[in-house]
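Late entry, written up from scratch paper. The run itself happened at the end of the previous shift, but nothing got recorded in the book at the time, so transcribing now.
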Amino acid sequence: MQSRAGLYRVRQPMSRKQQLLKRHRRNKRIGLLIALMLLIAIGVWVAWWLPPVLAVLGWIAHEAWFADHLFYSPKDDYQYSFAPYTQQPKVHLDGERLRLDEGVMLVDDATLVLALRIKSTWLGRFIDPVVELTGGEHPDLQTFERGVNGLRYLNLSGQAHVLSRGELRLRGRFCRLLGEPVLRVFEQPDYRRQRVMVIAPHADDAELAAYGLYSQADEAWIVTLTAGEIEAEHYRQLGLNKVEAARLKGRLRAWDSIAVPRWAGVPEAHCVQLGYFCLQLAAMQAAPAQSVGSREADLSDTRVFRQLNPFALPGDVDGAATWNNLLADLRELLLRARPEVIVLPHPILDPHPDHICAQQAVLEALQGLEWQPTTLLGYANHLHDNDRWPMGDAGHGIALPPAFDSVIAMEPCCLPLSLDLQRDKAMALGMMHDLQPPMPFKRRVRRLIQRLLARRAPPLYGENEFFRKAVRRHELLWILKPTSTSPTQRGEL
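Output as recorded:
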């Protein structure tokens, strides 16, 4: 079947993430031009052999300390707004010891966020600054930007007991902790005891964001929207052309989206792959009745990637990749599963275009539906401003991400992951074909340089960056504002 992707591609306005990348690349080109002129001048006026030496040293320095995509100054304050009713028990930092006021008791499973100023030492400009949390049975490390000097938010979730006893210690490594800290406490129900549906724009998004949640939920559904068939260069090494490689990758990722949740105990009947095409959701949304085919697989029929589904859906009638079919599929699934909790991409924090459209599709599908969830939880597998977040190594805690818009009130929700659960999550990610290809040679060289000069640890579970980012002591989600619908039924807590 011939693809119609080219006919219906819609020119989307440049996202904030794209604007930041464009500005970064422009500044890098200007910097390289200036450096080249300086090297030529040094070669002419000082010594002919000096420019190559300086160029190599400059490249090594760039790879060690300046290769991170950080689209803000480390001196910028994070700007969060929290709901006015948020609990704020008084705390004091007495040396390294964090103390609660007398009589304050904390709920063990509450989400705890501590705001304080962090200032790096001179070594913290070259080695990642770390805040150590010690004194209890579960010590933690949380990492921040090199050269940090501003307001940051530590995640103290899981430390309530030791904090209540007055035994929690905070110590900066390559940084200093300044000012009077502010503690915020968020108490939420145990969402693991409810029916959970995770919306994954691509295979692996559910695992990256919420493996710990859905693997422990009383009942879980995993709904993957796209086949994720594009960018299949790895499979072209098998001698396949572009179309064949894309189709193979789509089939593999469709299988992953169905099979990997089984590792976590999700029944096969609760794993659904919708088979729409990667990076085409925005074009579908712009023309809801028109079918938008794959960019690379020369396909326009979603049924190619739906063959493993446990039941038929409305979109199976014609297999058209339309926004209207997507909404019909989602409505059918919502009515069938009746989830009390829906986990989906965060509308502000996550800039990926498919993630934005996935969130909007779910909200649109919920409008006027007879069943409504009680809770929406947002996740961010990508960020606008910092491609390395969560910073630090696998197994460490997750500090709150950079945020610079204090207009929208935020409510974090943190789920602790035991070491055994972290390992299971890492194995689940390892089963995902998209995370298996080896890193490019340039990135492997960069990692070696950073290991030697910036003291960054080698990867523990896998080469892909998501093994470092996602396998942590916490899963950080966000309570989203409920949908503005008038339901006849709601899920019960």
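The two ends are 47 Å apart (CA to CA).
(Scratch paper discarded after transcription.)
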